[in-house]
Every structure is written in structure tokens, then in C-alpha cells.
UniProtKB/TrEMBL annotation:
Species name: Streptomyces hundungensis
InterPro entries registered for this protein in UniProt: MPAB/Lcp_cat_dom
Pfam family, any one: MPAB_Lcp_cat
Protein's name according to its UniProt entry: ER-bound oxygenase mpaB/mpaB'/Rubber oxygenase catalytic domain-containing protein
Residue ranges annotated for the ER-bound oxygenase mpaB/mpaB'/Rubber oxygenase catalytic domain, each copy included: 18-258
Annotated coiled-coil segments of the chain: none
GO MF entry, a single one: oxidoreductase activity
Length: 292
């Protein structure tokens, strides 16, 4: 069997990414990663022209979150999800704001979407978790490469070490990244977003009634965490301002989250797919220990 025929292997149970990706704290970091992705003109154009993020933001968010969880906790379903995503992106093409033709699966563009996860995770961890050791940084990056293979990227399209990653990342920031219509829309606090349409009917009706009151502070909070959990060099490349006062507020938020979330029961601390995978892993480990 050739290497091409071998299915990609998800990140290992019990690894660094395994402990991060399903923790509810990571929900705070996803807007930063998404905004950094679409700050690339080709990715931004693809989202602008082909995504339903304006008409179905909650459905799109739910599907994206489930997909991300499958990459890490899906086991054999991880590779299947990667194939589904590639199939979905085959028809996404057009011309970006620079006049350049793009296709969603062009390795350089598809690799950037994948690459943004690592620096955002690493930056956010300084606030909402314990800063990574050098060994954890290297383990996280190696596990993130596994995610890239699940998405269908080849090793030649991804920096293979942290030492290779940072020059690549800084070059993309310098040469490609900037603001655009999608970035501005994701950061806006004055553009309407429909009320959530998921969950039990009574809850949906209540949210719909309260949405005019709830949405403005939620929009401001979304903008705050989007910019705050974005690495400073990425903020600078996009042209986003961040004050010392905002930094102090973010650190206070991080301390509260860092203290409170570990106290939550698993059913509240971990997202459903992660919770089930973690429980199955514990049971499997217990059976293995019992058979020795």
C-alpha cells in the first residue's frame, strides 16, 4: 500500500489538541481564526461569494463547529469529513478583490485556512489556559499537521516544523493579509444578524423577542474577542486597533474563564462530540488496565 492510500490519522487521544478543541473555552477563539482566514483576499472572496454566513449564520456556525470536532474526535469519520469538505469546495472559484483568479482548493489558499488555527490557539492559550511549554507547542503543531492531512493537504503544502511555520506565517501576513468586506462584516457591531433559530421552540421564540436588546452587547463582545484573541502581528497586518485598556480587560476576562471553566462538570465544559470521545477513551483505557 502506498502512502497515498493510507488514510490520514487524527490527533491522538489524550494529546494537546485533544484537550483543547472540545473545551468550551475554544469557542471564544473561533471568531479570531475565521477572521484571520478571510483576511486573505482569495479566502475572503470565496466566503463573500459562496458562503451562507449572511443568510444562515447560526446554521453555518453549527456545521463548521461540528466539522472541526470531527477532525479531532471523529476517529474513522475524520477522514470522511475531510473528503466531504474537499468535495464541497470543488466548485468554489472566482476572482478576488486584487483581480486574481482563485479556487478554494488551491494549496496555498487551502493551507492558509488550516494554518490559522495554530497561531490563534497558541496566542489565546496565554489568556484562557496555561501557556504552553516548548514541548507542548511542538506537540500541538505536530497534531495540527495531522488535521491538515485529514483536510487533504499534502506535507509539501504545510510547513513541517515550528521553525518552518513562523517564517511562512509572517510572509503571508506581509504579502497577502489585509482588511476586506468580509473582515469588516465579521467585526461590525451595527449590521443586523438574525436571531438564533436552533433549539426548542419556546427558547427560539424568547430569543426572537429579546434579540433587539441582546444583539448589540453580543455584537460588541464578538468584536472584542475577535480582535483580542488574534495574534498581535495579525492584528497589525489587518489594520485593527487594540488599546492597553482593552488588553487589561481581556486579561481580566481570561482570568475569570481560566478559573471558572475547569470547575464545570464535563457536560458543560466539553462540546458533545468531544465529551463522548473522551468518555469512550476513558472506558477503553480502564478496560485495558483491567485486562492486564
Amino acid at each position: 500500500m502506498s502512502r497515498r492510500d493510507v488514510p490520514p490519522v487524527p490527533p491522538p487521544p489524550g494529546g494537546v489538541l485533544w484537550s483543547l478543541a472540545g473545551d468550551v473555552r475554544m469557542l471564544l477563539t473561533l471568531p479570531a481564526a475565521l477572521t484571520l482566514q478571510v483576511a486573505h483576499p482569495a479566502v475572503g472572496a470565496g466566503v463573500d461569494e459562496h458562503s451562507v454566513f449572511r443568510t444562515d449564520p447560526w446554521g453555518r456556525g453549527e456545521r463548521s463547529l461540528r466539522s472541526l470536532q470531527l477532525w479531532v474526535y471523529g476517529g474513522e469519520r475524520a477522514a470522511e469529513e475531510g473528503r466531504r469538505l474537499r468535495e464541497l469546495h470543488k466548485t468554489i472559484q472566482g476572482t478576488d478583490a486584487t483581480g486574481r483568479r482563485y479556487h478554494a482548493l488551491t494549496p496555498a489558499y487551502y493551507a492558509w485556512v488550516h494554518a490559522t488555527g495554530y497561531p490563534v490557539y497558541a496566542h489565546a492559550q496565554q489568556y484562557i489556559g496555561r501557556p504552553f511549554t516548548d514541548a507542548q507547542h511542538r506537540a500541538l503543531y505536530a497534531e495540527w499537521l495531522r488535521v491538515g492531512r485529514i483536510l487533504g493537504l499534502h506535507d509539501r503544502d504545510m510547513p513541517q516544523t515550528i521553525e518552518e511555520f513562523w517564517p511562512y506565517y509572517r510572509k503571508v501576513l506581509a504579502d497577502e493579509i489585509g482588511t476586506n468586506a468580509v473582515v469588516e462584516e465579521l467585526l461590525a457591531t451595527d449590521r443586523p444578524v438574525p436571531a438564533p433559530d436552533r433549539g426548542p421552540l419556546p427558547l427560539r421564540l424568547l430569543l426572537r423577542a429579546l434579540w433587539p436588546v441582546l444583539f448589540p452587547p453580543l455584537a460588541r463582545f464578538r468584536r472584542f474577542v475577535t480582535i483580542g484573541f488574534m495574534p498581535p502581528d495579525a492584528r497589525e497586518a489587518i489594520g485593527l486597533e487594540w488599546s492597553d485598556a482593552q488588553e487589561r480587560t481581556l486579561r481580566r476576562l481570561g482570568r475569570a474563564v481560566r478559573l471558572l471553566v475547569p470547575l464545570l462538570p464535563d457536560r458543560l465544559r466539553y462540546l458533545p462530540l468531544a465529551r463522548r470521545a473522551r468518555a469512550e477513551f476513558r472506558c477503553s483505557a480502564a478496560r485495558g488496565a483491567g485486562s492486564r
